[in-house]
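Supplementary notes (optional reading)

For those who missed the lab, this is the record we used. Protein: Histidine kinase/HSP90-like ATPase domain-containing protein. Length: 152 residues.
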Amino acid sequence: MEHIDAATTALFDHHASGDPPRATVTSPATARAYARSVVRERWESPSRRARDEDIVDLLLVVSELVTNAVRHGEGLAGFQVTPTQEGLRVAVRDHSDLVPDVSQGAGAFPVGHHGNGYGWPLIIRLAREITVDRHPGGGKTIGVLVPLRPAP
């Protein structure tokens, strides 16, 4: 796994502001665990719980974004989750300048089973406000909003 630099770790140093304690995200599994902890500790409240199906969508989007950074983006360079009234904003930074061709597509699944190519269509279908920002020093950040609805 790619080494996570100090800038990445700084994204998780929220302890002083009352946010969840510092976490190191190095894989899709640790990204999912961190995102879930942000939902529990900062989005949910005693009177508001997220719908289970929305949590499943969130965890799938997080997993796909981090996996893409590792597989296609020359490694994970940063990960941030920010709660909003509408859900969670997820930002994943990698080391590659390459923007996926299908990043703003219609979310069509690949024809036939090739073993891959399903991640971006899932992200497009489950997330909103998808952005791809290139960085002057190299790499890019892909940001999305994953909607969360209160459970009935």
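If you only remember one thing from this example: Confidence is low (pLDDT under 50) at residues 1-17.
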